[in-house]
Design goal:
The protein has 325 residues and is mostly beta strands. Helices cover 0% and strands 43% of the residues. It contains no helices and 24 strands. The protein has strands at 2-3, 14-16, 25-31, 40-47, 61-71, 90-100, 115-125, 131-138, 148-150, 158-159, 164-166, 171-172, 175-176, 178-185, 189-197, 204-210, 230-236, 243-250, 259-267, 276-278, 281-285, 300-305, 314-316, 322-324. Strands 6-5-8-3-22-23 form a 6-stranded antiparallel beta sheet, with no helix packed on it. Strands 11, 16, 17, 19, 20 and 21 form a 6-stranded antiparallel beta sheet that branches. The protein has a 4-stranded antiparallel beta sheet with strand order 1-24-4-7, with no helix packed on it. A hairpin with a 3-residue loop joins strand 14 and strand 15. It starts with a strand and ends with a strand. The model has no long low-confidence stretch (mean pLDDT 95).
């Protein structure tokens, strides 16, 4: 689980060296993005490096780390200990020395969550209210800045979870019929786009759109993945079997994080069974936060200090992306 959710696909606009640069620090985030219906076990937390700013000083190092978790108090303040709802606070990683990886080298954008801190025991989260994680760092041996990815503003364009391919498309005279999907948003509009490639030439095409993966064998040249909630004509393929369909919808909060399973179909008399070629399916979601706007849209409160023992810190609604494991 990545939070904020849009960070799965998007690099932060800036970087933060607060947590693992200086000898002693304390960093806390209250996170309202995981509220839901299913109990989960959180076994660790992970961070990723920046690709925006210099990583020259981000050499491997050791540090003594303590991590507490709990539920967020009704009012979030600049006093660390007051931000836990009593009596939910629990030490999930007792103070011990950990090794921090070398972050000096470039990597993918965004980077993998490869600074992983495993908890001593899983933390049970019922997802009924916002959680809080609190990291105290002492005796950090590093000398240079250790910058992690950080969002100081909401990106002007946000996207949903990284799409997942389902199965393989049919073979046509143009190759393997493939499908990709993209769901993005700016401050006012949700943009939905579905693409097909290598389908049958000059053929009527359909978009199969639903919310569940049927993964069903029904006598076609590949499995049916879209659940047939909507079957929409999207024009015809080109000579190379390409087709694109776009939809723009005014943004509303009810559009956040909608799950879609889509698949394309095109009329194809060369198929051995029914005269339709199908693409792979694609599972994806709409953005969890609208592009632009105030950082309160992250649903995260952040507090930090350059000492691990001070009772108070500096507050913001910016955030470092994390992966709960």
């Amino acid at each position: 689980m990545v939070s904020p959710p849009h960070a799965v696909n998007v690099e932060g606009n800036s970087s933060s060296g607060v947590t693992f640069t200086t000898p002693t620090t304390r960093t806390q985030q209250a996170d309202g993005n995981l509220i839901g219906s299913n109990v989960v076990l959180i076994r660790g937390i992970a961070f990723r490096r920046t690709n925006i700013h210099s990583r020259i000083g981000a050499t491997a190092r050791k540090a003594d780390v303590t991590i507490d978790m709990g539920y967020r108090a009704a009012t979030y303040t600049n006093t660390f200990d007051n931000n836990f709802l009593a009596p939910t606070r629990k030490t999930v990683h007792a103070k011990k020395t950990i090794n921090l990886p070398d972050w000096t080298q470039p990597t993918t954008t965004p980077a993998p969550f490869d600074l992983i801190i495993k908890f001593d025991a899983p933390w049970v989260y019922d997802r009924k209210q916002a959680l809080v994680w609190d990291i105290k760092v002492e005796n950090n041996t590093g000398g240079g800045p250790y910058y992690m990815d950080w969002f100081s503003v909401v990106p002007p364009i946000t996207s949903g979870d990284r799409p997942t391919d389902l199965g393989t498309g049919c073979t046509t005279k143009n190759g393997t019929f493939t499908h990709t999907a993209s769901y993005t948003a700016d401050a006012n509009t949700l943009f939905l786009q579905w693409n097909g490639a290598n389908g049958p030439a000059i053929a009527p095409a359909l978009l199969i759109l639903g919310s569940k993966d049927l993964n069903a064998t029904i006598g076609l040249c590949t499995k049916l993945h879209g659940d047939l909630t909507f079957i929409l004509p999207i024009g015809a393929t080109s000579a190379t079997g390409a087709v694109t369909s776009q939809l723009r919808v005014p943004w509303a909060n009810g559009l956040r994080g909608l799950a879609f399973v889509t698949q394309l179909a095109a009329f194809d008399t060369t198929q051995a069974s029914l005269p339709w070629a199908l693409t792979n399916g694609v599972k994806g979601t709409t953005p969890h936060v609208v592009g632009g706007g105030a950082t309160t849209a992250f649903l995260i409160d952040r507090l930090w200090s350059n000492t691990s023992t001070g009772p108070t810190g500096s507050m913001s609604t910016t955030c470092a992306p994390v992966q709960y494991q």
